[in-house]
Amino acid sequence: MEIGAQSLRTYVVQPQETAKAFESGDLEVLATPRLVGMFESVAKDMLGATLTPENTSVGVHVDLKHLKATAVGQTVEIMVTVTAIEGRRYTFALRAVDASNDVIGEGTHTRVVVNRQRFLEGLKK
How much is the CA Rg of the chain, to the nearest whole Å? Predict the structure, then answer.
């Protein structure tokens, strides 16, 4: 993977993905925690495609502006772009647009590549 690599995925907002369902608000619009999850999923899969089976990546930072509400049934296009690689640390630019091509969210996300077994063993300490 190199700086500038991109991945794109489209979602349709489901009733179980609303602020009301996530208890992060009381409206039937895309929940901010779910938007974060969409971004993380795309970045994880993009990076994961380059890793050996004994490795995975973990999210360590998200900085997100949720700029516009998105109703149930509307589409959300998620774009992640690699902006920095420092050893095992990968930083991504995040951008989400709705069907009208309005930006609904943007920010950055950082993931670190870890050995699965060592990571899980660290939980036992």
Answer: 16
Q: What is the reported pLDDT for 117?
A: 94
111 contacts 27 by C-beta, under 8 angstroms: no
Contact assessment for residue 84 and residue 61, using Cβ atoms and an 8 Å cutoff: no
DSSP per position, 57-80: EEEEEEEEEE-S--BTT-EEEEEE
Task: Please tell me the distance from the alpha carbon of residue 40 to that of residue 63, in angstroms, as a whole number.
Answer: 12
Q: Considering the entire predicted model, what is its pTM?
A: 0.93
Kind of pairing, strands 75-86 and 55-66? unpaired
Residue whose structure tokens are 């951008």: 95
111 CB-contact burial (10 Å; exposed 0-12 / middle 13-18 / buried 19+): buried
